[in-house]
Amino acid sequence: MKDYCTKCSLEIFGKEREPELNIEQMFEALQPGFMTTGMLCEGCGLVAVTRTEDNELKVVYSEWEGEELIYSEPSDYIKKLQNNDTDE
Q1: pTM, two decimal places
Q2: What burial letters (b/e) apply to 70-81, b meaning 16+ CB within 10 Å?
Q3: Which residues lie closer than 8 Å to 75 by C-beta, 6 or more apart?
């Protein structure tokens, strides 16, 4: 089975399916200054989630496309995804 992050799961399946790689849950489980790796989103190439020393969410992709990668709150990342989802 392919794994999809929060972003890709929303884009592909909408809100009817939970993502296998839940960015917000991963962020909440991290202590400041730590990251979780060992994943690969089949949609966007997400490979790591980081909680910075300033408690910001940083998402890391295998290929960076110039998108802003740091969010002051994980909820900002989720809101951005949901806003993109509703714009279509």
Answers
A1: 0.71
A2: ebeebeebbeeb
A3: 24
